[in-house]
């Protein structure tokens, strides 16, 4: 038996987000969010489900933290629901909302678990959507206001901050593909939303530095390989475009202070209306960060398709791919490729894997066990490759499994389970899955036995 040993001090944790786990949507003055609204529209979410109760974390956070502690977690990544702090999106602060997160943070610290706090994981206050949501340039200022309150009130205890989670999804799935809240179908609006998110990100980073609170700040991007389906030149071009759409449009403004010119030209040629890129705003969004969060799930293959406007490509799996219950292939070598690329192409000096995990249909056995070997295998492959990547000289300081427990998986409702802890949504009982027991051992050994 060999051993795979991670560097001393490597941080192992698990991640969640507010709307996906909290429930308690009408409690303690929380304002409505775009996800409450989106879920209420028939057809948007599988089985008409919503986050009203979710994993009931709002009421059970103490037990949840105790379980994390028993599992040996060193860190926990969660997000703050903007509408608990500012029910109208701006203006009056809801002290009860502050209290909830303050208690959670204290509970974590008492358990020896370091909080990694995401400011925006998609649950925008509906009141701000009513003002145009992220397409409104003023949103950057509203985000600053929210960020400032969180940094002021929690920054004495929270030392790791993430401004935005997957701005690609929030902008393009929300405003163009309509698969997420607010559910629009307007490509130009999506580009504009992504731009304003980045201006907001820049304002919050600037405030954080000026606040003198100390600690680290970064952003979580879902960067994943887009490979040509065949050698045909149109597929090769399509893959480059898909990479520009998902990856380069998001990493380049942050790391290089500019948007990719080939994509600007392409979008313009298709009649997409682009924001007026302002020099000062590009400078703001490219301020140095302490880490880049990588959310990695899988690579995809890309085929040219003239039917799709404006992107002209479709995503397709290679024949015989091993897939999860969402039809996502398992592609751990792509994980390594992306981390190397982040370092070599963009000069990222510190990567935090802010999410990695997979969804499988789980079965609870008669003696209350969940033998999720497929998920365990997925995690093991990715953690082994992560180790190789570190050995090859890429600096990665932390790894977070998505997710701590089963939760409201956006438009898939409760059917898609990513947890390493099983949640029985009828009773709210938690059962640590086989993958969870295995992950605890990884943390304890700071590595793997192979
Ligand atoms: C998101 C999570 C989500 C996960 C699995 C990521 O894109 O950040 O909120 O649950 O993927 O779909």
Automatic annotation (TrEMBL):
<feature type="active site" description="Proton donor">
    <location>
        <position position="166"/>
    </location>
</feature>
<comment type="similarity">
    <text>Belongs to the glycosyl hydrolase 1 family.</text>
</comment>
<dbReference type="GO" id="GO:0008422">
    <property type="term" value="F:beta-glucosidase activity"/>
</dbReference>
<dbReference type="Pfam" id="PF00232">
    <property type="entry name" value="Glyco_hydro_1"/>
</dbReference>
<feature type="binding site">
    <location>
        <position position="121"/>
    </location>
    <ligand>
        <name>substrate</name>
    </ligand>
</feature>
<keyword id="KW-0326">Glycosidase</keyword>
<feature type="binding site">
    <location>
        <position position="297"/>
    </location>
    <ligand>
        <name>substrate</name>
    </ligand>
</feature>
<feature type="binding site">
    <location>
        <begin position="409"/>
        <end position="410"/>
    </location>
    <ligand>
        <name>substrate</name>
    </ligand>
</feature>
<dbReference type="InterPro" id="IPR017853">
    <property type="entry name" value="GH"/>
</dbReference>
<keyword id="KW-0624">Polysaccharide degradation</keyword>
<feature type="binding site">
    <location>
        <position position="402"/>
    </location>
    <ligand>
        <name>substrate</name>
    </ligand>
</feature>
<keyword id="KW-0136">Cellulose degradation</keyword>
<feature type="active site" description="Nucleophile">
    <location>
        <position position="355"/>
    </location>
</feature>
<protein>
    <recommendedName>
        <fullName>Beta-glucosidase</fullName>
        <ecNumber>3.2.1.21</ecNumber>
    </recommendedName>
</protein>
<feature type="binding site">
    <location>
        <position position="165"/>
    </location>
    <ligand>
        <name>substrate</name>
    </ligand>
</feature>
<dbReference type="InterPro" id="IPR001360">
    <property type="entry name" value="Glyco_hydro_1"/>
</dbReference>
<dbReference type="InterPro" id="IPR017736">
    <property type="entry name" value="Glyco_hydro_1_beta-glucosidase"/>
</dbReference>
<dbReference type="GO" id="GO:0030245">
    <property type="term" value="P:cellulose catabolic process"/>
</dbReference>
<feature type="binding site">
    <location>
        <position position="20"/>
    </location>
    <ligand>
        <name>substrate</name>
    </ligand>
</feature>
<dbReference type="GO" id="GO:0005829">
    <property type="term" value="C:cytosol"/>
</dbReference>
<dbReference type="InterPro" id="IPR033132">
    <property type="entry name" value="GH_1_N_CS"/>
</dbReference>
<keyword id="KW-0378">Hydrolase</keyword>
<keyword id="KW-0119">Carbohydrate metabolism</keyword>
